[in-house]
Amino acid sequence: MTPKIAVNGLKKVFPLGKEEFTALGGVDLDIADGEFVTLVGPSGCGKSTLMNIVAGLETPTAGSVLVDGQPVDGPSPERGVIFQQYALFPWLTVRKNVEFGLQVSGIPAAERRERAQHFIDLVGLTTHADQLPKALSGGMKQRTALARAYAVDPQLLLMDEPFGALDALTRVNLQDRLLRTWQEERRTILFVTHDVEEAVYLATRVVVMAARPGRIFEVINVDLPAARNEETRLSPEFAAIKNRVWRAVYHQPVGANTHDDADLALGAHHP
Ligand SMILES: Nc1ncnc2c1ncn2[C@@H]1O[C@H](COP(=O)(O)OP(=O)(O)OP(=O)(O)O)[C@@H](O)[C@H]1O
């Protein structure tokens, strides 16, 4: 079966003064339709670069990314992108922000309103639909961004540290909302995070990357029931997978990354 996303021999080299810097040194990865894949790894291992190439925002130096067997050659509404910054229009209400992409696609007003309402309800913003972003908390803004990305019905959702700027409790809450949304409206999701617990809680598969050059270090299946909750986080099975991911991230050979980089990137999450 054709994978939803096929990454083949992907290389990305950036010019660095007179030198070159290899951000991705040859990445191969297939992602099946409906999978939830998280990417973790030390700072600078190329997570965002990989994500940006899949989104069509960057071009590879060599290799290719195919979505449904077709080469990616630029951004597309089929691939919804959510970054850490909220990127909402400050002058539009939650509802109008969510409707925006539908308007651009020429969807009639009545259908726009109905679809926007469905996703606003799904992310739990029913009572805030007519507020402007400045009246919302960070978590609510990010839920608006999620509803907006979902409303245009993309095949893929590409999320780069979407909860990185939020406090721990809001973060856990949004992880649960995202999982519920994913279970009700199944899409293929590629999600970048620094947080090992988040990576395991959300994913069907965790891809651990290493730096210099950026590459896949280990792929770990998350063999846990699809319905996840607080009990999941406290279970021994969850702890075992988390430990495995943790080890893969930390025990990357010295030289794959500098000590300082690794400390900076992951120190905040050290137990
Ligand atoms: N436009 C660019 N020009 C030069 N170097 C770049 C460019 N973009 C990224 N890099 C370098 O490529 C490497 C990979 O960057 P990338 O942002 O993909 O890493 P990351 O794993 O997402 O890091 P972080 O977790 O810190 O966000 C880094 O060393 C970065 O400095």
Structure description:
The structure is a single chain. With 271 residues, the chain is an alpha/beta fold. The protein has a domain at 5-74 and 196-269: Rossmann fold. It is 37% helix and 24% strand. The chain contains nine helices and ten strands. It has helices at residues 47-55, 94-104, 109-122, 138-151, 168-184, 196-202, 230-234, 236-250, 259-266, and strands spanning 5-16, 19-31, 36-40, 62-67, 70-71, 79-82, 156-160, 188-192, 205-210, 215-221. The strands form two sheets. Strands 6-7-8-3-9-10 form a six-stranded mixed β-sheet, with helices on both faces. Strands 2-1-4-5 form a four-stranded antiparallel β-sheet. Helix 5 links the parallel strand 7 (156-160) and strand 8 (188-192). Helix 2 runs parallel beside helix 4 (138-151), helix 3 packs across helix 4 (138-151) and helix 4 (138-151) packs parallel to helix 5. It is globular. It starts with a strand and ends in a 5-residue tail after the last helix. Mean pLDDT is 88; it is low at 256-271. It binds adenosine-5'-triphosphate. Adenosine-5'-triphosphate (ATP) binds at residues 14, 16, 21, 23, 41, 43-49, 194, 214, 265. Keywords: ATP-binding, Nucleotide-binding, Transport. GO terms for molecular function: ATP binding. It comes from Sinomonas terrae. Residues 5-236 form the ABC transporter domain. This is ABC transporter ATP-binding protein.
